Amino acid sequence: MRDQTLKSERLLLRPPRAGDADDVYRNISDWDVIRMIARPPWPYPRELADEFVRTAEALMIEFENQVIGAIGIADRSFGGNLGFWLGKRHWGKGLMTEAARLLVAAYFENRGDVSLHSSYLVDNTASWRVQEKLGFIEVGSCTLHINSRGADLPGTRTLLTRTAFKAKSA
Ligand SMILES: CC(C)(COP(=O)(O)OP(=O)(O)OC[C@H]1O[C@@H](n2cnc3c(N)ncnc32)[C@H](O)[C@@H]1OP(=O)(O)O)[C@@H](O)C(=O)NCCC(=O)NCCS
After folding, report:
1. In the chain, how many domains are there?
2. Domain boundaries, position 41
C-alpha cells in the first residue's frame, strides 16, 4: 500500500519521502490532531516525524504541493483498518473525505476484501462524519488507547462494506 500513487481533483496520495518530515511535523504537532489519534505521544518530538516518513503504513496527502496529512489502511488480524489525520488549517474543506474516497476505492479495486474497518473516539464527530459519508456504519463500542492522553477512552468501531461504498459513490 505504501507504493501507491493516487490522484483526485485536488489531492495527490503518494508514498512518504525523507523530505516530507518537516511538513509532517508542522501538521501533526498540534494537540487538536494528536489527541484524537492513537499512537503519537504529546509533545510530539521532531525525530518522530523522520521515523514516521520512514516506517508508517500510510500515504502522504499532498495538496497544493505540500504534505498536509496522512492516510493509510493498516493490515490488522481482523482485516484492513483505515486511519487518517490532517493539519488543522486544512480542516473543513472536504479534503479528508476526498482522500479517503480515493484510497478506499483503490483498496476495494485491488484487494479481494469485502469490508474495511475503522473506529473513532466518541467525541470525534468530524472523523465519524468523514466515515459516514463513505458509507461506514457503526458496529459497536470499544476502548481506544490514546497515548498522548495516557488513557483508554470510549470509542466506536465502524465497518464499511464494498457494497455500501459502491452505493454511496454511485
Ligand atoms: C477528522 C479529520 C481528518 C476531518 O478532516 P476534514 O478534511 O476536515 O474532513 P471533511 O471536511 O472531509 O469532512 C468533515 C465533516 O465533519 C463535519 N464536522 C466537522 N466538525 C464537526 C463537529 N464538531 N460537529 C459536527 N460535524 C462536524 C464537517 O461539517 C464535515 O461534514 P459535511 O461535509 O457534512 O459538512 C480532521 O478533523 C482531523 O485530522 N482531525 C484530527 C485527527 C483525527 O481525528 N483523525 C481521525 C481519527 S479516528
Report:
1. 1
2. 6-169
Model pLDDT for residues 9-64, shown as the tens digit of each residue: 999 999 999 999 999 999 999 999 999 999 999 999 999 999 999 999 999 999 99
Residue 89 lies in a domain: yes
> Measured from the CB, is residue 136 less than 6 Å from ligand 1?
no
CATH of the domain at 103: 3.40.630.30
Q: Tell me: the pLDDT tens digits for 154-165? A: 999 999 999 999
Does the Cβ of 86 fall within 6 Å of ligand 1?
yes
> Within 13 Å, how many C-alpha atoms sit on residue 135's CB side?
16
Dist. CA 93 → ligand 1 center (Å): 9
Q: What is the pTM of this model?
A: 0.98
CB of residue 120 inside a 6 A radius of ligand 1: yes
Q: What is the pLDDT of residue 7?
A: 98
- Which residues, other chains included, contact 156 with Cβ-Cβ below 8 Å and sequence gap of 6+? 119, 120, 122, 128, 138, 140, 141, 142
